[in-house]
Write a structure and sequence with these properties.
about 220 residues; mainly alpha; Tetracycline Repressor, domain 2
């Protein structure tokens, strides 16, 4: 197999299920590709560049085939679909959200996606500076949500501190009755519904705080 940045990044992502992000090293990636570590440095100088390449792979896979909203499709639903695709792409890999957090995705797919978002919001009547705030807000919410989601769901069932049945035993219902009564909702395992609800709250806030009027 001919080595290039994409091949190395995919090999590193495939290793995450076994070693996690903390255990990932250039040496382990080289071993997975059956080469010596110095061979990787022709393409990637250090782990920082490796993480950027991994993040690029995750993001590009998420937005592959994304187009502008269909006729009659609300911009909010389009934005939710885009965020959902990114979440699913990160969830394919252990620590997938941590891979994307704080990295630099220098790829045409990123700039094309941002351009689509800006044009979509322009068509919805947003002022340029208002539309420019929306993509970072959705990106940061999505990455942050998945970091927490993977932290919770990654724990072994018996030791998972977020299990509602465990929390019911440690929360003093006499002192904190509302919390005890709503523990199933506060610490739900229905991540799909929680993610979707959070997105809709954010988008509703964006609509409420905008200064321009829709055309």
């Amino acid at each position: 197999m001919k080595l290039d940045t994409q091949v190395i990044a995919q090999a590193a992502l495939d290793l995450l299920d076994d070693v996690g992000l903390e255990g990932l090293t250039m040496r382990k990636v080289a071993a997975a590709l059956d080469v010596q570590a110095p061979a990787l440095y022709w393409h990637i100088k250090n782990k920082r560049e490796l993480l950027d390449a991994m993040a690029r792979t995750v993001f590009v896979a998420a937005v592959e085939g994304v187009e502008a909203p269909r006729q009659g499709e609300a911009w909010q639903e389009w934005a939710i679909g885009l965020a959902t695709r990114l979440r699913r792409s990160m969830l394919r890999y252990r620590d997938g959200a941590n891979v994307l957090a704080g990295t630099y995705v220098d790829d045409e797919a990123m700039w094309r996606t941002v351009e689509l978002m800006l044009r979509t919001l322009e068509d919805a009547g947003f002022a340029p500076r208002e539309s420019a705030r929306v993509f970072p807000i959705l990106l940061h919410y999505t990455v942050g949500f998945v970091i927490e989601e993977q932290a919770r769901s990654g724990a072994e069932y018996d030791s998972n501190p977020y299990r509602p049945d465990r929390l019911e035993k440690v929360i003093d219902a006499a002192r904190y009755p509302l919390t005890a009564n709503l523990v199933d909702t506060l610490f739900t395992a229905d991540y799909d519904a929680e993610f979707d609800h959070g997105l809709r709250v954010i988008l509703a806030g964006i609509v409420t705080t905008r200064t321009g009027q829709p055309r």
